[in-house]
Amino acid sequence: MAGYPVEGEIIQIHSYKHNGLIHRVWEETMVLKGTPTYIIAANDRTIVTEADGRTWVTREPAICFFHARHWFNIIGMIREDGIYYYCNLSSPFVWDDEALKYIDYDLDVKVFPDMTYVLLDEDEYERHRREMNYPNVIDRILKNNVRKLISWIHERKGPFAPDFIDMWYEKFLSYRK
Q1: What are the binding residues for Mg(2+)?
Q2: Mind listing the pLDDT tens digit for each residue in 92-103?
Q3: In the prediction, which pLDDT does 2 show?
Q4: What positions carry a catalytic annotation?
Q5: Is residue 177 predicted with pLDDT exceeding 80?
Q6: How far apart are CA 17 and CA 80, in angstroms?
Q7: What CATH number does residue 39 fall under?
Q8: Is residue 39 part of a domain?
Q9: Containing H/E element for 65?
């Protein structure tokens, strides 16, 4: 079993809920950089299958950042009017040769091109925390990681750095030629 997928490889992304049930599957995402610590990948108009079997297709190119130590992942969506980020509070990723996998913990941070942001789905988080009995330690880890993510936004760190998304999108385009 490889520790991580290799550059240029097309992989699936599987998102689960805390109870172990599948939440969402992205059919085709290209790995741009794979290390044991992080994976940077990209997709454009990929099929997404929801837990209930419904499917939809992503609307724009996206650069995806997954980390093995942080409890969030970051999707930079490239739109006409700038880069929008969708950040999922989640378990660190695992790679098992079938797919890149993580547990989605409901809380999301949406970041706008001007770097303003909004925390989403707090009500869904609280409901699932009760229904699925998230341990207190998970609750603390997630709340700490919301703070860490917001500090990354303020500091323009990682995927929020000014050229990060553009640089990786150029690499994605070079593979697609």
Answers
A1: 88, 104, 106, 108, 121, 124
A2: 999 998 999 999
A3: 59
A4: 24
A5: no
A6: 32
A7: 2.40.380.10
A8: yes
A9: strand 62-67
